[in-house]
Amino acid sequence: MVVLGRLAAPYGVQGWLHLHLFGDDPASWQRMPQWWLARNDSETAEWVATGLKAVKQHGGGWVAKLEGIDSRDGAEAITGCYFAAPREALPAAGTGEFYWTDLIGLRVVNAQGEFLGVVESLIETGANDVMKLKDGDTERLLPFVDHVVTDVNVANGQVTVDWQGDW
Predict the structure, then answer these.
(1) pTM for the full predicted model
(2) What are the angstrom distances between the C-alpha of 161 and each of 76, 91, 130, 136?
(3) C or N: which end of the chain has fewer Cβ atoms within 10 Å?
């Protein structure tokens, strides 16, 4: 499952929920007939398919309406749940775009061929995304921006960066 976000708080009295998004294209998610919900996002989470009625922008954020959730009480009962979808149900990423889940586990090397680590996670900072790399006990944080990341080859399992090994 690819975790898309979290149900943040009820919106109104008809079962709508504010969304805390982990991705940047929620408009495309409204074409999915269902989302999967779970109380946690661990590897052992038990995901339950739930019909999706609507997703819409509201103010500076997004809200969603799920099937069977028709009251504020119903929305409060699922607040805090994560929502996800199987990778194959997601829209295709555009050119130069990647799902974070596709980047996790890739090897990162610099232009000189030095191994810098494996992508352990990504962090959204507001200004830009940051890759957290792990190589044994060494951790590195590298900005995921065009002038640092020169190539991403998911098929070969590698990210190439313009970054010195001793930085």
Answers:
(1) 0.71
(2) 44, 27, 13, 19
(3) C
